[in-house]
Write a structure and sequence with these properties.
InterPro entries: AB_hydrolase_1 (IPR000073), AB_hydrolase_fold (IPR029058), MES/HNL (IPR045889). By secondary structure, the protein is α/β, with parallel strands linked by helices. The chain contains eleven helices and eight strands. Strands 2-1-3-4-7-8 form a six-stranded parallel beta sheet, with helices on both faces. A two-stranded antiparallel sheet has the order 5-6.
Length: 261
């Protein structure tokens, strides 16, 4: 692997959001590898090629286990750059509390950035998408019974482009419609994190998506105000800049990584 612009070798770990998988990063991974970077794209539990039933993933610890396992096995002398999209921000925050010394920088892309997860009513207000103006946009499954909270969720196909990909190429939205899988919503809602003693030592960067219909800019701004990152960068994109503005997203991620040295 070659060095870029005088920087040491960089290892990026890309973490997808709800209902997506490692596949959604294919454009960013290609750009990174072409630039000589090392890239790891993980499938969290019940996502991508992981065949776990989302209705049986009831805790965030279980859902996030692939990232936890990866970081646990990372050599103590190696640091990675974590990049999380959407609900992948919860995974990043969990990792920051657990593995601060192994993370060079955490980059949140249109992502949940809540210091302690969904621990308070304000966390829920700021971090949960509000798409109520569109009506019933999601299909829910009740794997534990109709008298229990839902266990999985997926955006209905007719709303996917409007909410997730309105500025993305048609071929990418078509690919996504084939690969999206229900996400373990009960695990997401139970994401709560204790304060790791070294958590504040990890630099955080937030990339705002200005035309986001899913996690609206106002909600992103509220999370930024409540847990201020080192840097805020901006993209003229929809909720999924890995499809709509991949080159610009790659440039901002690279810029953020460079700033961590």
């Amino acid at each position: 692997m070659k060095e870029q612009a005088g920087l040491p070798d960089l290892h990026f770990v890309l973490v997808h959001g709800a209902c997506h998988g490692a596949w959604c990063w294919f454009k960013i991974r290609s750009l990174m590898e072409t630039s000589g970077y090392k890239v790891t794209c993980l499938d969290l539990k019940s996502a991508g090629i992981d065949q776990s039933n989302p209705n049986t993933i009831l805790t965030f610890d279980e859902y996030n286990a692939p990232l936890t396992h990866f970081l646990s096995n990372l050599p103590d002398n190696e640091k990675v750059i974590l990049v999380g999209h959407s609900a992948g921000g919860l995974s990043l925050t969990d990792a920051i509390h657990r593995f601060a010394k192994k993370i060079r920088v955490a980059i949140y892309v249109a992502a949940n950035m809540l210091r302690h997860g969904f621990s308070t009513d304000q966390d829920i207000k700021d971090g949960e998408p509000d798409v109520s103006e569109y009506g019933e946009v999601a299909d829910l499954e009740y794997g534990m019974g109709l008298d229990q909270p839902p266990t999985s969720i997926i955006i209905k196909e007719e709303f996917q482009k409007r909410l997730l990909y309105q500025l993305s190429p048609k071929e990418d939205t078509a690919l996504a419609s084939l690969l999206l899988r229900p996400g373990p919503v009960r695990a997401f809602k139970g994401a709560r994190f204790e304060g790791g003693k070294d958590a504040d030592s990890v630099p955080r960067i937030y990339i705002k998506t200005l035309h986001d219909q899913m996690l609206k800019p106002m909600k992103q701004e509220q999370m930024i105000k409540r847990w201020q990152p080192c840097q805020v960068l901006v993209l003229e994109s929809d909720h999924s800049p890995f499809f709509s503005t991949p080159r610009l997203l790659f440039d901002l991620i690279s810029e953020g990584a460079a700033a961590s040295f």
